[in-house]
């Protein structure tokens, strides 16, 4: 035993050396090789190793080793280095566990991308076919539910119908009045430019009146309904789906189509003729203001409208409007109930409702144009 006069043995200090012997690089470590020591020696050790392939890692004098030191030794060793294992049992066990862990972790190779146009086309076709089946199923379910409510109308939630009539119709009147007046003014001014060249400004009321009642009135009212009400339907039903309220209705034995879909579609169908009528009246008023600025009295404008406009023109436009409202309500409800579960589900549903509603609006308008032409109406 050391005498009290002898100084105590100093703790082992870390050391690193790099020597080349017989064409082989020896990297020697001694003392404790833990995280802080490995951090200090990392750049120096890698600089000494360089690109040499014949390397011997001498860790025989390492007295303490943790994951940081084992990571330094493993990064220096590569796949072909020779090892001199630590003589310390705990350090040797730490190094062995670290190397075994590295062997268990394998990089996942990305599968090779293959150009398969036929497979891609088939997948796209099948996806479109599944979407078509979903839409057909929703349409069939909606029609059957509506037919089942006809002999029992008391089962329909009339309070919901009135609420949606107010939201989709009454609250949309100011926007329809503004837009209708502006459209009438714009059409009258734009048509007056070519009409003036032929001295036919008196026929502006006929042009604007027929355009509004047969085409522009229902079409613009449908755009307003798709932007306001269709998106609102999709957002409301999409939120209920995300919050699992639709699933709760099914759990309670209630039909979501009868409770949520039919009242909204009925309200949008009933409100569209009223919106179209508001667009027509305000558009004609805006046209009358322009005609007054051109020097034509209201009596002359009314005479021209009475001479050329007929009840058939007005009825055709209002009938188209009812079908437009039916399509917009259906598209909005379908987009809401088919929404996903993610954070963007409600926004995507509202966007799909607006886009789908406008596309359906234009398609139906084209079909009615062909039908009216064939009927000579």
TrEMBL record:
InterPro entries: MlaB-like_STAS, Permease_MalE, STAS_dom, STAS_dom_sf. Residues 1-20 are annotated as: Disordered. The chain crosses the membrane at residues 171-189, 274-294, 314-337, 349-373. Residues 14-76 form the STAS domain. Keywords: Membrane, Transmembrane, Transmembrane helix. Residues 1-18 have a biased composition (Low complexity). The keyword Transmembrane applies. It comes from the Bacteria. PROSITE patterns: STAS (PS50801). It holds the Pfam family STAS_2. This is ABC transporter permease. It comes from Roseococcus pinisoli.
């Amino acid at each position: 035993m050391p005498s009290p006069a002898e100084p105590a043995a100093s703790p082992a200090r870390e050391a690193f050396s790099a020597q080349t012997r017989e064409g082989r690089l020896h990297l020697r470590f001694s003392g404790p090789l833990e995280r802080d020591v490995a951090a200090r020696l990392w750049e120096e050790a890698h600089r000494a190793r360089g690109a040499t392939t014949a390397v011997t890692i001498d860790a025989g004098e390492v007295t303490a080793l943790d994951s940081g030191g084992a990571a330094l030794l493993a990064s220096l060793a590569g796949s072909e280095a020779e090892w001199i294992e630590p003589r310390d049992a705990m350090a040797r066990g730490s190094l062995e566990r670290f190397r075994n862990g590295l062997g268990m972790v394998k990089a996942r190779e990305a599968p090779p991308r293959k150009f398969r146009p036929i497979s891609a086309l088939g997948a796209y076709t099948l996806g479109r076919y599944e979407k078509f089946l979903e839409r057909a199923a929703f349409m069939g379910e909606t029609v059957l539910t509506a037919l089942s409510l006809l002999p029992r109308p008391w089962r329909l939630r009339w309070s919901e119908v009135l609420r949606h009539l107010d939201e989709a119709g009454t609250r949309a009147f100011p926007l329809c009045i503004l837009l209708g007046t502006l459209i009438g003014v714009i059409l009258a001014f734009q048509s007056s430019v070519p009409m003036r060249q032929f001295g036919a400004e008196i026929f502006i009321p006929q042009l604007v009146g027929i355009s509004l009642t047969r085409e522009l009135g229902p079409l613009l009212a449908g755009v307003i309904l798709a932007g306001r009400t269709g998106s609102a339907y999709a957002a409301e039903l999409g939120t209920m789906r995300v919050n699992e309220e639709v699933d709760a209705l099914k759990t309670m034995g209630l039909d979501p189509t009868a409770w949520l879909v039919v009242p909204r579609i009925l309200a949008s169908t009933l409100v569209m003729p009223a919106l179209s009528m508001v667009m027509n009246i305000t558009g004609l008023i805006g046209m009358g203001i322009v005609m007054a600025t051109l020097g034509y009295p209201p009596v002359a404008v009314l005479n021209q409208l009475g001479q050329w406009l007929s009840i058939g023109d007005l009825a055709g436009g209002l009938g188209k409007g009812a079908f437009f409202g039916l399509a917009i309500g259906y598209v909005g409800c379908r987009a809401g109930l088919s929404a996903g579960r993610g954070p963007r589900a409600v926004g995507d549903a509202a966007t799909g409702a607006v886009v789908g509603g406008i596309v359906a609006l234009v398609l139906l308008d084209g079909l009615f144009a062909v039908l009216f032409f064939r009927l000579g109406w």
